[in-house]
Design brief:
Chains A, B: Belongs to the FAD-binding oxidoreductase/transferase type 4 family. Chains A, B: One of its GO terms (molecular function) is FAD binding. Chains A, B: InterPro entries: FAD-bd_oxidored_4_C, FAD-bd_PCMH, FAD-bd_PCMH-like_sf, FAD-bd_PCMH_sub1, FAD-bd_PCMH_sub2, FAD-linked_Oxase-like_C, FAD-oxidored/transferase_4, Oxid_FAD_bind_N. Two copies of one chain form a homodimer. The first copy, chain A, is an alpha+beta fold. The first copy, chain A, folds into four domains: 85 residues, Uridine Diphospho-n-acetylenolpyruvylglucosamine Reductase, domain 2 (2-Layer Sandwich), CATH 3.30.43.10; 119 residues, Uridine Diphospho-n-acetylenolpyruvylglucosamine Reductase, domain 3 (2-Layer Sandwich), CATH 3.30.465.10; 121 residues, Alpha-Beta Plaits, CATH 3.30.70.2190; 71 residues, Alpha-Beta Plaits, CATH 3.30.70. In chain A, the strands form four sheets. A seven-stranded antiparallel sheet of chain A has the order 15-12-14-13-17-18-16, sandwiched between helices. In chain A, helix 8 crosses helix 10. At the A-B interface, helix 5, strand 9, helix 6, helix 7 and helix 13 of A face helix 5, strand 9, helix 6, helix 7 and helix 13 of B.
Chain lengths: 466, 466
Amino acid sequence: MTEIETILRQSLPEASFRPPEPRYLEEPRGRYAGQAVAVLAPASTEEVTTIVKACAQTATPIVPYGGGTGLVGGQIAGEGTRPVVLSLERMRQIRKLDPVGATMTVEAGAILADVHSAATAEGLIFPLTLASQGSARIGGLLSTNAGGVNVIRYGNARDLCLGLEVVFPDGTVMHGLSSLRKNNTGYDLRHLLIGAEGTLGVITAATLRLFPEPAATGAALMVVPDPDAALALLRRVQARAGGGLSAFELIGGMGLTFLDEVGPELRQPFAARPDWMCLIDLGLAQGQDPSDLLEAVFAEAHEAGLVSDGVIARSEGQRQEFWSLRESIPEANRRIGSISSHDISVPVAAIPAFIAEAPGRLAKIGDYRINCFGHLGDGNLHYNVFPRQGQSRADHEEARGGIKTCVHDLVHEMGGSVSAEHGIGRLKVDDLERYGDPAKLAAMRAIKQALDPKGIMNPGAVLRAP
Amino acid sequence: MTEIETILRQSLPEASFRPPEPRYLEEPRGRYAGQAVAVLAPASTEEVTTIVKACAQTATPIVPYGGGTGLVGGQIAGEGTRPVVLSLERMRQIRKLDPVGATMTVEAGAILADVHSAATAEGLIFPLTLASQGSARIGGLLSTNAGGVNVIRYGNARDLCLGLEVVFPDGTVMHGLSSLRKNNTGYDLRHLLIGAEGTLGVITAATLRLFPEPAATGAALMVVPDPDAALALLRRVQARAGGGLSAFELIGGMGLTFLDEVGPELRQPFAARPDWMCLIDLGLAQGQDPSDLLEAVFAEAHEAGLVSDGVIARSEGQRQEFWSLRESIPEANRRIGSISSHDISVPVAAIPAFIAEAPGRLAKIGDYRINCFGHLGDGNLHYNVFPRQGQSRADHEEARGGIKTCVHDLVHEMGGSVSAEHGIGRLKVDDLERYGDPAKLAAMRAIKQALDPKGIMNPGAVLRAP
């Protein structure tokens, strides 16, 4: 037994040890294989500090582990000294729910869907919504500053968090579970830890913002001729719905073709597969009618030539059908198998220019299919490149690097980001070095060195291990 | 001439030197008197780097200076080595305004009111709104994470900023003027610099979020029996207005008494001065009528015994009158002269309990008048303690410390903040040490040391100078 194993066995209860099952050492796309000296699931913040102190003492790396749904390898360390995998899965208590203040304090291992349920039981909502909500955990969602479909209305994960409890790399605990809306007392370490992907400390609990459940919800799918029209449609919806617009998703025709090709099988709303359509989701206050509003928007947009067809949900069931369609596209993508996937953002106004320019550049590399969809109002696209029908991603393995660079170079030229919502993890460390601002990177390294001088917290994620 | 003066004279144009006028060396309440080896007003980011590098070379402190409106002495260094005062007043260009993307990139010296005007000219708004907007500058507003009356709807200054250009203490420049809504590429240094009060670098420019101008605005004053009723009224307005509630201010009766006593003279809406009233401000989308909504809220709240009287603005002029009343209270406070002022926050639901408890505790110290008003929906009160009529603050000078500790201890017991929106500056360094989380403070010091090893950036602000 190594020194760290001995210390851990002496200082932790048996229940905190987990068998090193594959689920702790793989990531969804199978691109990383990890290793571990131990997989630990502490039951309390105190146990987390015990683990972190033991690791600090023995210079053992720690990989914080939430739901394992990250797409950039932040949760998997395959190189260097074998790490302790620190899973928050047993810390999933709701410590406090304040319906009047509309806040909830939860431990980092709470699953997003459970947080949703707890809020709903009080007539409130926690609006962070994304495909992996049945397994993603709050600690991971905050550590990666997760996005999802409701960012346009409620912001990213960071905007939904009022306070954090964090175990720093020296084992000290920051007791920052504030539920205050305003608090200007020193550096905002909450925002520094959120999005740091476990490289500066372990988030053990968080105080989250809740919101009133909208009095009425509604949704529509509208067919637009091109992304420019989609953007103009977005402006019109915003003018009528104000802050009541919950989501505005752009869906490219290739996603619908993929669904026809490989499923999941579901009813498509338009007989002819449109090149572009928008999924509009509303959550309105008392006295406003979503269907009336969507009909008025459609009439006005149709008159202006911005939409050619559309369907407004007549029931909550139909609204859910629209969302199933949208959420099935990533599954269809997985079944086809992308050569290279890109989670990019550009300034919102530049979305049409990006969509116009990228295919021509990619055509110079090879003959591909592009499935482009995403969160139009946030300027965030999932821009994924696939083989032609009958070919597989394996046929294009050697092209992946070139495709990625082609897309990311264009994004960078347009002032965009090569990771809009997934983070850097281990997958995009090169990209951050290539595109990141040098002064920002130097400051990040200085902060990492200051807070984690031994380099034990998730080494190799975000910043290259020294 | 000292070494730093020699270097500066050699490397900067004459126009960048300002006479060391009192306005650079005093703060609004006259509690701090500063000194300076030079007052500099650079014309460009390049000149800022020249200054910072010269100061780094000679270990000369730098005090970044915006509009000089800060209330906690962050802009005034009276002790230690004479600093360079670095005023951003000449850097006030709007570098870019993107109406489609709804963003504006401005230099740090831009005055808030000018930013408002530039946005309005494009049919957009920049919603940060506070009493000092005619002189406060963007760099200072971001460095202190300013709040104001519209936080309930649009958030603090940090929530309104997408990107920053910053000169770090070593003179390197972070080119981070991103206008992206989503960007998860590394540590969020933007949020670290915002609210750091110039202790980690100099903000030279920022990209700000703009918002659509609401289609219709409206306001009302409603008389409530107590803060509990005010909170219940807030919930009812939120249920009807959704995201359309722009501000919800609680106004205590003492403010109205002070206006009667010392002015400014203005028409008060209720013949009998109510103990408590709420100023409700709405900005609604197309198709919604603010007056109808406010009338419905009033009828419902009256039925429920939450309001006893009210007046709804019948014109934009009347809405402005309501706001003049609210904004005149700080001026009346100044004329009376507070013994001790407190910018505090507690969890929103705890506001009534705080207001109920504090007077009894203060009565044990002495016989005072309390003017309590503020941003109820944010849990943020300006809780100011005054002498009885006929006495002056000078009569109670020796009681100030005890009063402050009394109020701040109660705030701390209730999980609140002793600086909700004004920051720490030099005034509250002791408070931060007394009430701050030790692990957070240690991490702050480590970050300060890492980014500013020579300790030249605004030394003594936020953190005690070593």
